[in-house]
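Before a colleague's protein record goes any further, I have to sign it off. My question to you is simply how this chain folds and whether the tokens agree. I do not need a full report, just your reasoning and any doubts. This is what I was given:
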Amino acid sequence: MTKGTPIRIYGVPMDLGQQRRGVDMGPSAIRYAGLQRRLELIGLPVSDWGNLPAPGIEEVPDLPADSRMRHARPIAAVCQAIHDAMLETIRAGERAIFLGGDHSIALGTISAALCRTERVGVIWVDTHGDFNTPDTTPSGNVHGMVVAALMGRCPPPLLIGERRLRPDQIVMVGIRDLDAGERIALKDSGIKVMTMRAIDEEGLATVMRAALRVLGNVDSIHVSFDMDSLDPSVAPGVGTAVSGGLTIREAHLLMEMLADDGRVCSLDLVEVNPILDDRNRTAEVAVDLAASLFGQRIL
């Protein structure tokens, strides 16, 4: 897609996929940090389509039977609406930014992004692999099952849409915190995983070139960016912070290289928690990174 391709912004104020409150305010925080204006200043046509409805945690029952997939049914209902909004965006020939909310929103965005063409790739930037299933999860939190569910490894209702993600369609970048069972499953999955150790040893540029080579045959790329992939010293406003993450410059370089690649059609920005933030600092970083992804240049 060209720089002139319109971008739609959708908010998804949902925090059902985890147990720490606050990420439902993430879309408002990122908007307050000036996302639309920032993209318009670099010459992009942008429209904000508001928030997709998501129930608060007080509005849904926490059933004992759902303990291995907490709030799975209301999450699935929200993600179906996300899926439909993404499909509408694709049919209009436009690009999309979805503001979380927790990372479970990617069940809807990625399942629909897979319908854009026959050859779609995903860059998953996260501290976590989100590759648990109901059998391996230590918490029952759905935001930790997203990639496994997209690949068909979780039961309904977490199977959104008709298409399933293949291991050769996704590259994970920045991984540094995995649960025991998740680690085993991810090693056996066939997914290319670029850990923080790989970034430390080889450098971010080398890692991203390798990631893009893995996705060399795809026509479009969806970027799912969890703000906890950044080190907490630069992005404190996240619910599951883990030290040793990406620096600001590494994150910008990642986004700049994806912009240069030219195949990115959609973006998730997730897990901004204003309650834990310092004067909206994490949301401001999210805006900066989105601008880099969609074409802001130093020169």
User: Anything to note?
Assistant: The first strand starts at residue 7 and ends at 12. Residues 7-293 form a domain with the Arginase; Chain A fold (CATH 3.40.800.10).
